[in-house]
Design a protein that fits this description.
This protein is α+β, with helices and mostly antiparallel strands.
Length: 183
């Protein structure tokens, strides 16, 4: 395609392999947005890029990275999806990252309620295997440690929900630490 002028060039990428500009083509009455590249499949795209780099149409403006806005809900979803890192000095085999999403919380609460009512695990044993976020099993050696885990996960999720609400209302807030020691 034949063109008569190029204006407003700015780098379109941090590595300077593309240049965004406005090109006046013979067959169109107005300037058109254009992305020039040395690897363009069209020869005129390669030529425009080379001319821009050579300075024929003035100085090329710097690349400006797009501003990516992450909503409070997206932030909340991410921290919940990343789980809660649990450490235990008395039972290091419990150390791991545990899920705290809605289904996880429902299961944790269910087991904790059973323990509260019957003072034992739902399996009737004195220990209870629980999967971490990757599916690896960890054995809680006592109901007391499981209850500490249940409390910590509930407090973490509650803190995350409070932060979400504050952020959605335009307040400044930070999500709680995603690491807890349960003893």
């Amino acid at each position: 395609m034949n063109y008569t002028d190029v204006k407003d060039p700015v780098y379109g990428s941090a590595d300077k392999t593309s240049i965004i500009c406005q090109v006046k083509f013979d067959s169109f009455p107005n300037y058109l947005p254009f992305s020039a590249s040395p690897k363009d499949v069209q020869l005129h795209g390669q030529k425009i890029f080379a001319e821009l780099v050579a300075g024929k149409y003035g100085t090329i403006g710097p690349y400006v990275a797009p501003v990516i806005t992450v909503t409070p809900q997206q932030q909340y979803n991410t921290v919940i999806a990343n789980g809660l890192t649990v450490t235990s000095s008395s039972a290091p085999a419990l150390n791991g990252v545990y899920g705290v999403a809605s289904d996880d919380q429902a299961n944790i609460i269910s087991e904790a309620q059973f323990i509260s009512i019957y003072q034992q695990f739902t399996n009737g044993l004195t220990s209870f295997a629980w999967a971490d976020i990757k599916g690896a099993m960890h054995t809680f050696p006592s109901t007391a440690l499981f209850m500490a885990f249940a409390k910590a996960s509930a407090m973490y999720v509650s803190g995350c929900k409070q932060t979400l609400a504050a952020l959605q209302n335009g307040q400044v807030a930070s999500f709680p630490a995603s690491t807890v020691n349960i003893g």
